[in-house]
Design goal:
By secondary structure, the chain is mainly β. The chain has helices spanning about 20-25, 100, and strands at about 1-5, 10-15, 15-20, 40-45, 60-65, 70-75, 90-95, 110-115. The chain is built from 2 helices and 8 strands. β1 (about 1-5) and β2 form a beta hairpin. The protein starts with a strand and ends with a strand. The mean pLDDT is about 95.
Length: about 120
Amino acid sequence: MRITNQTKNTLIADRARLADTIVSRLVGLLSRASLSSQEGLVITECRQIHMLFMRFAIDVIFVNRDNKVVGLVRDIKPFRMSPYFFRAQKAIELPVGVIDSSRTEKGDTLFLKDEE
């Protein structure tokens, strides 16, 4: 899945996976040692994430059902919890620095394109 910031015309991820089942949402990135550049994970039905048992820090973008950014968490470390974003529908987990490099801000609209 390719994710772009439509508002800023910037690339967020070129190789994002979708976690839309109970198991894939539960496991998330726990089995990973890191995320490489341009990778990401889109977790559906998600308003808050936990970093319990994670091995690396990440950036997280929370979007509503219209893919409008409603929350940003930069550089969240292992064994922490994000704030709860009531209006969020999805959490997009990304390598640290992506929020800043893509200039993503609250209110921006993202475009998530499934691979064909």
